[in-house]
Amino acid sequence: MLNRKCLLTYIGIVCLGIFSHQAVAFGAEGHRIVTKIAENHLSEKTTQALKAITDDADLSELSLWPDKIRGIPRWKKSKYWHYINAADHQQVGTAKRSSKGDLLSALNQSYQQLQNPDLSDDRRIQSLSFFIHFVGDIHQPLHVGRQDDRGGNSISIKWPQQNKRRNLHWVWDSGLIGAAKLTVEEYVARLDHASENQIQLWQQSSFLDWAVESKMLRSPVYEFGLTAPAPKEKTPITISQDYINRNRPIIEKRLLMAGIRLAGQLNQIFDPQKPTADLGK
After folding, report:
1. Contact predicate 129/63, CB 8 Å
2. How far apart are the first and last CA of the chain?
3. What's the CA gap between 260 and 143, in Å, rounded?
4. Region of residue 187 (left: phi > 0; alpha: psi -120 to 50; beta: else)
5. Rounded distance, CA 74 to CA 95, Å?
6. Are 10 and 2 in contact (CB under 8 A)?
7. Is domain 4-78+99-270 in CATH 1.10.575.10, yes or no?
8. Count of CB atoms within 10 A of residue 198's CB?
9. What is the pLDDT of residues 54-66, one digit of tens each?
10. Is residue 24 within 8 Å of 251, Cβ to Cβ?
11. How far is CA 132 from the centre of its chain?
């Protein structure tokens, strides 16, 4: 089993690889934004507890680890944990679940593990990394996706001023966020202005609620101003500036909501005396 020291070292190496290649996937920029927003809303007790667990490692780097281990044989099973499928006519809560696991199950499991006082150090840091990551994933609309187009991965698109073929999932993971041309710090400063009423409302919700919200965003996700192609259509859809302008505020709000909710959940686990809703069910 990968112990805490080795895990932290590996995460550092992974992150150097990510940023040396200037990756801007939701697994990098988006997850970092979510984590940095959350850090602004952690209690002092929670902050100190997380520092003790991680040896004061950067939480935003920890949030990237689950995306980078899916190619490792012992973690191959985890690739199913990043999404959940529900057809348009299905409710997320009653849709048939994969026997290999899914995002809702993984989110609940990592939450429950973090609550376990007998969890070993290495398991605790792994659970923390997964939990932080999955809170971000469930707020990205296409991680609660249609099975027939693999959460938008089978829908080919052409991004403005790029020749490389992309897909719709990439648009919501990366393209819309990158279109703002902001650093992580600039993004956090721009987004993190939720009112106390918004914070309270957003934190009074369950993991299932978050998934339902993501599914409800399918209309703008698939509104291209033309008839959508079949999932395996070879001709790419050209993403217009109008599509970007309409949808970037949506993904930005989801980033903010994810950060606020992540903070609420972590405070609930590590500082239960701090007033917060009972969300992790």
Report:
1. yes
2. 28
3. 19
4. alpha
5. 28
6. yes
7. yes
8. 13
9. 999 999 999 999 9
10. no
11. 8
The pLDDT of 2-26, averaged and rounded, is 45
User: Three-class SS of residue 249?
Assistant: helix
**What is the chain's mean pLDDT, rounded?**
88
Cβ atoms of residues 85 and 145 within 8 Å: yes
Residue 222's pLDDT is what?
96
Q: Which residues pair with 238 in a beta bridge?
A: 158
pLDDT in tens, 148-169: 999 999 999 999 989 888 999 9
Query: Between residues 232 and 205, which one has the greater pLDDT?
Result: 205
Tokens of 106: 């993984």
Between the alpha carbon of residue 137 and those of residues 169, 211, 239, the distances in Å are 12, 10, 23
Q: Cα–Cα distance between 104 and 108 in angstroms, integer?
A: 6
pLDDT at 26 over 70: no
Q: What is the pLDDT of residues 97-153, one digit of tens each?
A: 999 999 999 999 999 999 999 999 999 999 999 999 999 999 999 999 999 999 999
Are 30 and 250 a contacting pair, CB within 8 Å?
no
150, amino acid identity: R
- Which token pair is 170? 């990439």
- List the domain boundaries for the chain: 4-78+99-270
3-state secondary structure 102-141: CHHHHHHHHHHHHHCCCCCHHHHHHHHHHHHHHHHHHCCH
Tokens of 55: 């040896």
Whole-number Å distance between alpha carbons of 208 and 280: 10
What is the length of the chain?
Answer: 281
Q: For the chain, what percentages of helix, strand and coil (3-state, to nearest 5) are there?
A: 60, 5, 35
Q: Which residues contact 249 (CB under 8 A, 6 or more apart)?
A: none
